Prior knowledge:
The protein is mainly beta. The chain is 0% helix and 48% strand.
Amino acid sequence: xxxxxxxxxxxxxxxxxxxxxxxxxxxxxxxxxxxxxxxxxxxxxxxxxxxxxxxxxxxxxxxxxxxxxxxxxxxxxxxxxxxxxxxxxxxxxxxxxxxxxxxxxxxxxxxxxxxxxxxxxxxxxxxxxxxxxxxxxxxxxxxxxxxxxxxxxxxxxxxxxxxxxxxxxxxxxxxxxxxxxxxxxxxxxxxxxxxxxxxxxxxxxxxxxxxxxxxxxxxxxxxxxxxxxxxxxxxxxxxxxxxxxxxxxxxxxxxxxxxxxxxxxxxxxxxxxxxxxxxxxxxxxxxxxxxxxxx
Length: 295
């Protein structure tokens, strides 16, 4: 099936791109896979874009969005499973991270800083309208990551919508930015142990940030500077962490951790670190996000 089915509570969406094995970087035909709440596959959709989906999110109106920085495109699917055009060509910029806001707006992080063949950017964050019109531009701090060319690759937003946390993956820092004043707040966490790499981030609340570090998660106390490791199953590609809003348990919060290299999803109890679910999806090098329909 090359379309998605009407969304049901608990439905799970993941990127499932068909990768070209000869490509230098993970690249292929964009595809989204739909599961039910018990991880039984329901449907798949080809986006029509060639690249690599870097983020999935469900907005406050219940629509699903898939961002592809290589294709410079956002694919939007409404709650009936029908693909609609949000904007199919993002002007002059390759966005790699996305937070849908109310009213159809987005925060979009520029994936690149500097220039490599085919891509250029300044590593900024933009607030854009539903039609792609830029409403605000934020001069966010970046470090280029290990290769020197990565900008804002992962983002998390405070509950009041005023403080943005962001990383340049494979760099060592997690930064904060005051959106209301458009002011850099500097690093809130710097990894110093080898290898000094951080990847995706998730905000449990306004005092606790969770950072993906490849082989483990780390829970960072933003108020007291505490650092607590959260162990993960074996693997070195645990690069994505997302709050599992749809899975409360005994008042605790849960997290989805995604192994990019292994194509595996794990559901983690944020309080105890216990692995409650582990799903080997066979989606190596394309499992970059997860989105769950609220109950």
